[in-house]
Amino acid sequence: MRNAWIVVAGIAIVGFAVAVLVTRERSQPLTFTKSSSGTALARGEPVKQPSEAPAKYPHDDSVVQDAAPQRDFHEELKNAEDLWEFAASVLAEAKRGNGAAQYYLATALYDCQAFDQMYFRDGNRHRTYDEAMQNAVKRGGINWEYVSGVFKRCKRLVEAKETPFGNPDDWMKASSENRNPLAQAQTAVNIAWKAHFEGQADRARDERDEARRLAFEALRTKDPAALVLVGDVASVLDPRQGADNPHEWVWLLAACERGLDCSRKSTWYQFRCSADSKCQPYENGVVDVVRRETGSRFLELERRAKELNAKLDQDQFDDLGI
Predict the structure, then answer these.
(1) CA 209 to chain centre
(2) What global pTM score does this model have?
(3) If 113 and its partner were Cys, which of 14, 20, 121, 207 is the partner (CB 3.0–4.6 Å)?
């Protein structure tokens, strides 16, 4: 699993970006925030520009607070047909200091940056839609329909010379400072990777400590989506390799057990299977991928995931192996 998925918000240049994340991969992982999967085609309608100026980032106190029902930004992002429209729809909430809005705004911007780098960028030029699809096919194992969906979701953002949405790194930082657990966990991933490549021992130690602090902060919410990212932190901080470093699988299984959407329609599964030709129509989702990838080790990983959740339930954070 030390491969590509999660992008780092700063380190990954793109932070999640690329995902570059999609690169939130592991090589030097550009981390990639799990973001939405391919989607319905863009409607082709002209998209309304935000009516207000870009505002001072990452927080604008001049925006008047108003009472409004709590929004499910995750579902909105997942179902968005045009990520420019999504970004425009959450911008005001992000300026108000809403940590969730800041996190999902950063994620949308990162994701499009990441896919731009992966599929649509050719040196200093952008590939056309047809060129990008041909490139995806040539790379082998890439689900061109998935890439096509992402292209249509990100088209306006990647083609725009300027946007009114600000820098995703700033939004992610603001969200983490507002104690959004997903932003804290993603920031912990980025810092863990920074420590991994740090040349100065003292600085690397401080960075590892900070990554752990943020990871524990995120875990206190017991948000299953944060668990997946904390699994990345644990994996990066553990010097062991391969099967000796099973953190990501264990934490992913634990998150599924705690209620994370791990179905075939989940963003994790859709993203994974966009480039994994081994995914099969009869698979039910994430757990089947883990079972296929780990073989005889699966039952042991499943047992460890249950133990991890039991420790979380008892707030035994120091015993989680991070």
Answers:
(1) 22
(2) 0.76
(3) 14
